[in-house]
Amino acid sequence: MRVLAISTDYPPHGCGGYEQQCRDSAEHLRREGHGVRVLSGTAPPAAGDREHDVYRDLPRFPVEPAPVAVRAAWRAERRAAILLGRELAAYRPDVVCFWRLGELSMSLPARVAAAGIPAVGMVCDPWMLDGPQRDPWTRTRTARFDGVARWLFVSPALRGQVSRAGVPVADAEIVPAGIDLPSFPLAAARPWRDRLLYVGRLSPLKGVDVVIRALSRLPHTTLDVVGGGARRHEEQLARLARSLRVDDRVRFRGILARPRVAAAYAAADAVVFPIRWREPFGLVPLEAMATGTPVIGVASGGGAETLLDGRTALVVPPDDPDAIAAAVGRLASDVALRQRLRAGGRRMAERYPAQRSHVAVRAALEAAATRRPGFRLQAGDFMLAT
């Protein structure tokens, strides 16, 4: 089976959970003997692109929607159509796998369907709602998602959010994301040392500023921030830390490779997950739970399925530095609570192995490629099936 994977970003450009899941799925398919070519949004070439059949050519649009310039929009749409057509003709895929399309042309799924090629799409964030606002060509038309692909959603919460907005996906299947458990082994329990960790994209939606504000209530606590994002936002966070006089206790470590992220989890006393938005799934809490590190987090969106207050995490309201500080104080003073969260968190993480997710996506792709009518993933195939 030849699979053409299409995504806005592909590692090492874009190292969020969505991009990592795309890469891990591609590697799984190759191990199973399938061919995979990746077509992503415009980005500088990366080491290994040639050997991994990665092409970073598709025109991409700003995250913040720009004013519509009809001629420029038409040129970008025409270029996207030409590049897609070229890859379909050259690679001759049996099936197309859509990943995150958030800053790409929203016509890509319909164009693949018009070419008569079956497609499967893994939806891990609300790009179906945001993308049509970013694509200037689509803003003058209507994006079409129904009937052009078999859509798999990462959580019921995300599917419900998109469906309630009017996109006809209410019957789409659920394939939860998963973590590579061997990459996040259970670490040895250690005494409390007042070390907090944030892992993830740097964005106002992620709420890192809330944790920095909480540090002003925690005079002996440090915070490591692992992840990347807009340089402007990182500078804003650094200025906030200076204004609160906690900058000597905040360290921005940038994007780290997976082994170093696992080591950061193991070295932390607690991982904070202070999101402001409806998180589609929430891989970071599960990775932390796998290593046995307690989680303090906001249980919103898909994260509500795994962050269970007092059992797998301490749940706090969004935008509440006092609540985060209080949760840190509880963990610091209660060894039994830390042990309970450590055990409950590890059990929760073990329910979401990445292999199960990869197998489910592969089964959907194989079914689409062979055009097996009526095939659907079964409830026993993976966690939280439809």
Structural commentary:
The structure is a single chain. This protein is of the alpha/beta class and 386 residues long. It has 2 domains: 2-178 and 353-369, 3-Layer(aba) Sandwich (Rossmann fold), CATH 3.40.50; 181-350, 3-Layer(aba) Sandwich (Rossmann fold), CATH 3.40.50.2000. The protein has helices at 17-31, 70-91, 108-114, 127-134, 156-164, 208-215, 231-243, 258-267, 283-291, 321-333, 335-350, 354-369; strands spanning 2-7, 35-41, 54-58, 95-98, 119-123, 150-153, 173-174, 195-199, 222-226, 250-254, 270-273, 295-297, 314-315. The strands form 2 sheets. A 7-stranded parallel sheet has the order 3-2-1-4-5-6-7, with helices on both faces. The chain is globular and about 60 Å long. The model is unreliable at 377-386 (pLDDT under 50).
Supply the helix-strand structural class. alpha/beta
| SSE string, helices as H and strands as E | EHEEHEHEHEHEEHEHEHEHEEHHH
Distance between the termini: 26 Å
Radius of gyration: 21 Å
Count of individual helical segments: 12
Largest sheet: 7 strands, parallel
How many separate structural domains? 2
Q: Estimate the global geometry from the Cα principal axes.
A: globular
Q: What would CATH call the class of the largest domain?
A: Alpha Beta
Strand content: 5-15%
Portion of residues within helices:
25-40%
Q: Average the pLDDT over all residues and give the rounded result.
A: 92
CATH architecture designation of the largest domain: 3-Layer(aba) Sandwich
| Low-pLDDT runs | 377-386
The strand line-up of the biggest sheet is 3-2-1-4-5-6-7
What is the strand tally? 13
Output the CATH topology of the largest domain: Rossmann fold
- Which superfamily, in CATH terms, is the homologous superfamily of the largest domain? Glycogen Phosphorylase B
